Q: What sequence folds into this?
């Protein structure tokens, strides 16, 4: 099994929506035990995007965008590979590699666009998000722009102290299938 197969099997077969969007020390520990070294190696020497297919891009995004958040939860280190994750997402989308992915795979391939604080990337996430469903414990989640004032939907900056967020903004709303605002 390749590193890509191992990452994807773990994320999509061993874990699921209840694990993806929850704080769970057991999941964090499992990621450190199984993928901590892979994360550190890939951070030092990322794979060449041109050497990866769609599933390889997806696996790299999960390593750089999701595993980092589990490995370094509540610290600025959780976001240090966001730019790498975005570069793999951009490359995959620009080459149409997202077309063959299922809704959950697309969700994670697009996640770096939503995590990015760049307005243009936020706008792009809104264009991509109708193509995926975001399962949460409260039900499916979709993102919609509710204001012409664009700003980051997820304002977490590298270096910002844990728990400190900018004042709330209302440029984006998230609604579940029940109409419940999350």
A:
């Amino acid at each position: 099994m390749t590193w890509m197969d191992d990452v994807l099997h773990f994320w999509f077969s061993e874990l699921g929506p209840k694990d993806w969007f929850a704080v769970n020390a057991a999941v964090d520990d499992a990621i450190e035990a199984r993928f901590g070294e892979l994360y550190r190696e890939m951070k030092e020497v990322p794979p060449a995007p041109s050497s990866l297919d769609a599933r390889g891009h997806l696996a790299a995004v999960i390593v750089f965008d999701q595993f980092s958040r589990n490995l370094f939860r509540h610290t600025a280190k959780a976001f240090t590979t966001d730019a790498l994750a975005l570069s793999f997402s951009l490359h995959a989308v620009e080459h149409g590699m997202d077309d063959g992915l299922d809704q959950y795979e697309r969700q994670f391939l697009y996640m770096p666009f939503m995590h990015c604080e760049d307005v243009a990337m936020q706008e792009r996430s809104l264009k991509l998000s109708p193509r995926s469903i975001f399962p949460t414990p409260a039900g499916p989640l979709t993102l919609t722009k509710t204001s012409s004032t664009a700003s980051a939907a997820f304002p977490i900056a590298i270096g910002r102290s844990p728990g400190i967020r900018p004042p709330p903004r209302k440029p984006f709303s998230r609604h579940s299938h029940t109409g419940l605002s999350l």
Summary: Residues 3-133 form one domain. The chain has a mean pLDDT of 77. The beta strands are 134-136, 139-145, 172-176. The first helix runs from residue 3 to 14.
